[in-house]
Design a protein that fits this description.
mainly beta; nine-stranded mixed β-sheet; 12 strands; three-stranded antiparallel β-sheet
Length: 206
């Protein structure tokens, strides 16, 4: 089993602090979520009509389509490339991070409202109107908890910190008929009954 398979999982529980200058760390409660789904809850990111498919679409392709700037952090097997996009939904500014870990393809996405009065980071490219709204799978910012539950069904874990997680695990076959294990997470944080932060991550071995 490749060590790189675990890198997105390790990143999820890194506990790194949120920062406008880069993607946020993921909540530790995520690892308490059991795999209750057999179909991935958010295997793609929708930018208006165009779709970014996790583990298939390259970050370079997204950069070419949006004019975004690719950045790199870390070294060796811990290197990851990131791209920031910004826009406005429901009259509020939001920010989207797309992340490629251990390769050229997008493996993670984070979507969040910006704080009141916060200015977009200079590296965040503004999305054109036809690239909006942004959705992780079927879910977007500002959606009610009831609407999300209607779309996805019960969460794999309803954590006490306000996060809800949907976690899938399934076995697939590649073109050589070798078995692969695919894991997909979707996290949604609700405040006052509406989604304010989201993330999706996918990892497949081998």
């Amino acid at each position: 089993m490749r060590f790189a398979f675990f890198l997105p999982i390790l990143a999820l529980v890194s506990g790194a602090a949120s920062a406008a200058g880069g993607p946020a760390g993921y909540p530790a409660t995520l690892m308490d979520a059991p795999a209750t789904l057999t179909e991935p809850p958010a295997p793609f990111v929708r930018l208006g009509k165009p779709v970014v498919t996790l583990e298939k679409t390259t970050l370079e392709d997204v950069a070419l389509r949006t004019g975004g700037m690719r950045l790199s952090e870390g070294r060796g097997i811990f290197r990851r490339d990131i791209l920031c996009l910004a826009g406005t939904e429901g009259g509020r500014p939001m920010r989207l991070w797309l992340i490629a870990t251990d390769g050229p393809r997008v493996s993670e996405a984070q979507l969040e409202w910006m704080a009141e009065g916060e200015k977009p980071d200079p590296v965040c490219r503004s999305l054109s109107p036809e690239r909006l709204p942004v959705r992780l799978g079927k879910v977007g910012l500002g959606m009610t908890k009831e609407a999300v539950l209607e779309l996805l069904g019960p969460a794999s874990l309803d954590a006490a910190d306000g996060w809800h997680y949907w976690f899938s695990q399934r076995f697939l076959r590649n073109e050589r008929n070798f078995q692969m294990l695919e894991l997909n997470w979707l996290g949604v944080r609700f405040e006052d009954g509406r989604a304010v932060r989201l993330f999706s991550s996918q990892a497949t071995n081998p």
